[in-house]
Amino acid sequence: MTGSRIRARDWGWQHAGRDAPAVAGLDLDVEPGERVLLLGPSGAGKSTLLSALAGVLGGEEEGDESGELRVDDAHPSSRRGIAGLVLQDPQANTIMERVGDDVAFGCENLAVPRAEIWPRVRHALDAVGLDVDLDRSTAALSGGQRQRLALAGAIAMRPGLILLDEPTANLDPAGVLEVRDAVARVARETGATLVVVEHRVETWLPVVDRVVVLAPGGGAVADGAPSAVLDAHRDELAAGGVWVPGLPVEVPRGARRAGGPLLALDGVRAGRGGVPVHEAVSLEVRAGEALVVTGPNGAGKSTLALTLAGLMPAVEGRVRATEALRAPGSGTSPLREADPLRWRPKQLATRIGTVFQQPEHQFVASRVRDEVAAGLRAQGLPRADIERRVDELLAALRLDALADANPFTLSGGEQRRLSVATVLAPAPRIMVLDEPTFGQDRRTWQELVRLIAALVDERGCAVVAVTHDADVERVLGDRRLRLGAP
Amino acid sequence: MRSRAPSRPTALDRVNPVTPFAAAVLYSVPMLLTIDLVTAAVALGAWLAVLGAAGIGPRTVLRRSWPLLLAAPLSAVSMLLYAEPGGRIHAELWLAIVSDRSVELAAAIGLRVLAIGVPILVGLAGLDPTRLADGLAQVARLPHRFVLAALAGVRLFGVLGEDWRQIALARRARGLGDTGAVRRALQAAFALLVVALRRGGTLATAMEARGFGGPQRTWARPSTLGRADLVLLVVTFAVVALAIGTSLATGSFRPLWEGVR
Amino acid sequence: MTATAPSVAPARRSSRWRVVDIVVAAVLGVATGLLFVLWNGVGYVWFSAMDALTPGFGGIAVGIWLIGGVLGGLIIRKPGAALFVEVLASVVSMLLGSQWAIETVYSGIAQGLGAELVFLLFAYRRFGPLVAVLAGIGAAVAAWTLELFTSGNLAMSGEFLAIYLACVVASGAVLAGLLGWLLTRALAATGVLDRFASGRARRR
Description:
With 261 residues, chain B is mainly alpha-helical. Chain B contains 9 helices and 2 strands; from the N terminus they run H-H-H-E-E-H-H-H-H-H-H.
């Protein structure tokens, strides 16, 4: 099998109902077997281009196409299975209930004869190194396994072109390497042309042999060997949110003044349905200090975070709020109850705030402004105070221009900032964050980490951050807790 | 929707999942057109015997069909009070009239709910969605794009349980939920629907990228009919014939349209 | 039809189903099915309590069971969408143990057709609140007709049937029609329907 040839001439696409094209004036040639990393700031149309190459951009009902786009001399939407596409969210890539059925799905759609399908399925699973039973439930797979399953599903169709849209953005470090290595092996063995979109450049440098940089509405602005392009455009790429290798992120920290303990964990083991998932944890969460919790997938990091945040009961041990946390500043009366789990929601929110992994899970209002105000209204604060506080927070998190937008329409980075704003609104003394930097580009990353650092250094909050991100651990790890494998 | 923990295999596991559907239609249509005690009683008794013979005991039957034990008396009450009166009148309050005829109809409708519901709920419970979809597309020849999309939709909701949990916890974390429980529940349900539809949109892209949507396709898992399927249909037909035959023979047969008089 | 809000028709419409139409309709169908399961408990309590005490007023609870067709028609805007969503919802409801067993699916087919017919009458070009309400009523009338057989309502008194019809129609108009329209508008505002004409037409 040989790779496909891509040819774009003054190509562009404008989504129906949008004011500006997502991509315009793109000229690009990719030779068979080339392995291209596609970079650019968010809004540069990288995903749009991948969807177009995969032939899934939708017909004229969904937008206007201009110029010419060809994969092997045919328009990509004219032939099914012309390219295999792996998307960012591992869950979205899984279609069927069982592993074997999921890989077979593409072959069935291309009307491959039944006798040929199962050998293809086994071969594809071997190629991505996924050694699991064909009857295994796809729900039981880890993120990295799911992405390799998606890759297997793609290559079982024997496409000449493999397209990857941020395939490792949602994975832990082990998952990232699993998927990267599987892609490298598949590309080598099949000779397929490869196009990858990914912010984390370093991961993919060993695999790709060419880098193309897209600009919003401006086509390809840089193109060439990876080292040459990265050297020449280092600063603008970094400003656009790309994680350029050899350019570490730095967030200055203030002088640390750790205060007294707010929360004490005494031999706590967290878990669901009464089954503990990690060894007993005893520690104090102190004001003015950030605690970073790390560990492999399934080690119970998120569960522990929910437990100490007063959202889940501990399976063993005790979570106890100290006097200092129970008697916060103005407005609220001190609490007698020491177990956060038994506080009422509005008491909890002024003491411990939790930012969930998926911002969408937190939204309750149809306007950004109301979203921030919701928690304050539940506290029964006077209207004028609420307005003032909301304005402050929106300005601080650069959301003021979006005050009237629907929260669900925001971009990933904006949604993340909004979710932080909503939790900050009732001014909790402890902030618990679950993977705050997951899938974020470099720019949003810096904004978020700067904000979290300021909470600790300037406002004297306690922060508990669950993360896989080594940079977060480096910057925020005043204290570190590592949970072992299950 | 997911199949439950593997219990003892029963005769039903050998039939194509489409067959219980066909049997349910074959059985329910004549039953819905009759409204008499004997037909319903004979049919219900016959099915309980058949299910027992097929290895499905009374405990399983009860576990799967308990909602019917509530639904049946409630349907009967409505019929008891508001059926077109006939014969002796026992009690009367505004439009509610309990008469000889309404008592008889109430008993018949209550029993009919059980007679139709019990075998169908037991027969259709715990079907594997993938096998069912294969059968609906390959055997029943329903449009495969719609059947497979429905299957993907069912799987999507299998994984939404975790989303729902997170949404509920996030409400508490934000200090909401002290008041207005109904409103909060509706907001949470809306958030879940938005998450589901967004996932659905991405799923559509993933499916289309795997070549889904074309007119022709092959099937990795064949779905076929066998002897067990024939047996189920024959048994169903026999139960209908026995029930209606008995009520005709005893002179108690009453089709629905005779109820109009 | 003067009361109909001007629903903007997109420049290019096609009655061909795209993959995203089918998949999102399926997601809607399963979601509606889960709503039905919930309502099979909550709404049924109301339905039966009212039905036992009053002639036909139980019909007021019926509207929620009709919302699938309205949602499907309003959001997907393709021929057959109302039918597909309502039928799928009823199948999901039945497989999860609805007390009406196979009759759930018969109802789904009838109710879906009732709503579908209204969208067809407007040639799949109008999707305003009035059309939504009419679709809810269409589904209600179909449900009432089917229940003459499936619930043995043919044996009921004329007064009961008249009151029941009025209640089911009112419920269909409000709980299926109006509620379905409001829900569609709220969903459009979140941007999740951007790939649909229904989402683009109503975005502010």
